[in-house]
Automatic annotation (TrEMBL):
Ranges of residues in domain GMT-like wHTH: 315-394
Gene that specifies this protein: tcmP
Record-given protein name: Three-Cys-motif partner protein TcmP
The organism of origin for this protein: Piscinibacter terrae
InterPro entries referenced in this protein's UniProt entry, alphabetically: GMT_wHTH, Tcm_partner
Amino acid sequence: MSHYAWKWGSPPPPVKRHSEVKHALLRNYLIDYFLTLVAMPHQDRIKLTIVDGFCGGGLYISESGHEVPGSPLVILNAIREATLLIETRQERRKPIDLDVELICIDKSKTTLDYLERLLKDRNYGAALAAGKIQLVKGQFDQHCAATIQRAKGRSRISGRAIFVLDQYGYSRVPMHCLRDIFATLPHAEVILTFYIDALISYLNEVNLAGFEQATGIRGGMTAAEIDEMKKSPKWRVHLQSSLYQSLTSQCSAKFYTPFFVRPQRGHGDFWLLHLSQHWKARDVMATTHWNHSNHFSHYGRAGFHMFSTGYITKIDSKDQLQGGFDFSEVAASVSQDTMLEQIPVMLFDIAEDISFEQFFLQLINTTPATRMMVESTLLKLSQLNEIQVLGEDGDESRARVHLKPDHVLRLNRQIRLMF
Ligand SMILES: C[S@@+](CC[C@H](N)C(=O)[O-])C[C@H]1O[C@@H](n2cnc3c(N)ncnc32)[C@H](O)[C@@H]1O
């Protein structure tokens, strides 16, 4: 059953608060994405394919009666905004060419008809005619392979593509699609919606088996195992944590951000996962969250290993909501305090010298912190004489502002003796 109805001549569907949150993130991320890429020297042209795999009709109506853009318009507006920002902020020798092709997929014909009329209305008729915007009717999983090939054909070497997979529910994006994306396109990124609560709230062995069959996520449980698991007061935590680990380990993305959204009025939480093959992409997404903390919250702990306890929507016995981590200034300072305590213990456990690069790459998936935040915490620990930072000659470095990837981190001897 579709929860959204777009029919030309009738008002568009009402926008849901969580859709606005997703759209804000998408807009902010795309702008940050382009600004990061153009900051690279000699970059005059960015060739990118964006696939909006569950695109919808492109327009909503807000509670106050205003029109609100859906994801295709959010993407197109973000490209325009980024182009303007680049032109005004940077003194470039040549104007930047953002060569983006947008492929919109939806299984509903009336929805796509609506989107086509809307785009023509908003002056995108020429882009449609030139194939810069393509509308594809059908299920995402049926068109996934063709869109991957299209993105590859357009950008053979870098394979730049962003897949916005805003599925309704949790079972319409099979793992083989994600694996194909990452195997074929070295710079692909996926922003995936996953309604974790819809799965957990009605969990039984039939649901779970159906979910596993549809997605290809393995980790099966029998009815007896599910019953046994549900006896534990923390079963939601365990299940979220294990599903998260199954998904991230089986989709073959190297880097991921585990951010969660809690819609108002108790519609259940969903994950908004960002999956990528490059630490920089992950870092830009984490930075976007910190830069726009008013739009977003995710719940988890500060510092590293934020998943050690998992994340839950309800503490089962008392039915209370878990506290949030909101990317605010307070959260940033708690993150630094937590990392100041954690890093010496981690360096003690690692036991050997380790470069900043290796240290960061080992931990990036377990923290809401950005590379810059980890770097400044390490520099602070060095000023506090808790760790040493060594240059390539093996001598203590005087780095105070930035660390180089090959700077070596070592726990101070005195601190080592305290453990
Ligand atoms: C939540 S709405 C779209 C939201 C849109 N991404 C936005 O943010 O404005 C979900 C859309 O997915 C479409 N849909 C559902 N299952 C699909 C599938 N397997 N493949 C492609 N589209 C699908 C529905 O017709 C509906 O228009």
